[in-house]
Amino acid sequence: MFFIEARRILVVILGSFLIAVSLNFFLIAANVYASGFAGAAQLIASVFQDFLHIDVTTGILLFLLNIPVLILGWFKVGKGFTIYSILSVIFATLFLEILPVMSFSDDIMLNAAAGGVIGGAGVGLSLKYGASTGGMDIVAMILSRLNDKPIGIYFLLLNAVVILMAGILYEPENALYTMLALYVTTLVIDAIHTSDQKVTALIVTHKVEELQHAIHNEMIRGITIIPVKGAYTGEEKSMLYLVLTRYELYDLELIVTEVDPDAFTNIIQTSGIFGFFRQEGKKIDDIQQTQ
Question: What is the C-alpha to C-alpha distance for residues 203 and 212, in angstroms, rounded to an integer?
């Protein structure tokens, strides 16, 4: 378990470094904006410097914007997820302050594409190992749990505001290149992690009760339990069927590995669901379970 957590921390640090490289080496100098809170911090820093003549770095603003969100995430999303998000924000701020702001090319399109690829890799790695880059990830998860709307809607709204303000305050061309950077970032995140916000897990196990309780202790999900039989061995087992968000995939893997290392798990991308999916305030007793 120690090595698993150590690997997770190292990946979070690497993801934070890649995000800082994306901003300081490509996007900031080109006035192209990143996605989420990083892009909002960039835009605010630009406004402070260009219109108010106040020099505030993107790293400091990113940290300040995340403080209330991380506090909210601690109580609403989960302590484990938020701890790694805090680490991500701290190291991203540190790397943004340490690395110089520079540009390897004067071509805005190259900066937008390269920044999008590197930034997307940083975010995708963090998500793949059960963390986030803070900011909009946590806000979107909280809002999605309140009304069960797709998380992507909230990313789209914030990024639309950043693009619109970039076009109004600066050249419309900056807004167009920001759209390119955001598109590339999304493609890379989807390639590294998963494009679907919800996924279905099918877990075949001998230890059905222990696994059910362990999952409910961590994420409070509705679980359908189906009796199954191995075609080759004729062995009687049980299959747990549950839908969860992509942010919980890494935690589910840890739970299954710890409770039943011999379990067989199949993850299926879920385009949409009908009926009940966890919303804030619902208890385990409110979730229908079929056994």
Answer: 10
Q: Residue 171 is encoded by which pair of tokens?
A: 């050249």
- Looking at the DSSP bridge assignments, the partners of residue 269 are 199
Give the residue extent of every domain in the chain: 2-192, 198-286
Report the distance separating Cα 218 and Cα 281, nearest Å.
Answer: 15
Q: In this structure, what token pair is assigned to residue 70?
A: 């991380």
Pairing mode, if any, of strands 236-245 and 198-205? Answer: antiparallel
Contact between 182 and 35 under an 8 Å Cβ cutoff? The reply is yes
User: Among residues 173, 174, 116, 136, which one has the least CA distance to residue 40?
Assistant: 136
Judge residue 2's burial from the number of C-beta atoms within 10 Å of its C-beta, 0-12 exposed, 13-18 middle, 19 or more buried. Answer: exposed
Tokens of 285: 């007793």
CATH code assigned to 198-286 = 3.30.70.120
Compute the distance between CA of residue 107 and CA of residue 127 in angstroms, rounded to an integer: 30
- The Cα–Cα gap between 256 and 198 comes to 18
Please write the tens of the pLDDT for every residue from 208-224.
999 999 988 877 678 99
CA distance 172 to 262: 56
pLDDT tens digit string along 144-174? 666 655 555 667 777 888 888 888 888 888 8
- How far, CA to CA in Å, does 141 sit from each of 20, 45, 153, 245, 279? 24, 26, 11, 9, 10
For 175-211, how does the pLDDT look when each residue is reduced to its tens digit (9 = 90+)?
Answer: 889 889 988 988 887 777 654 567 899 999 999 999 9
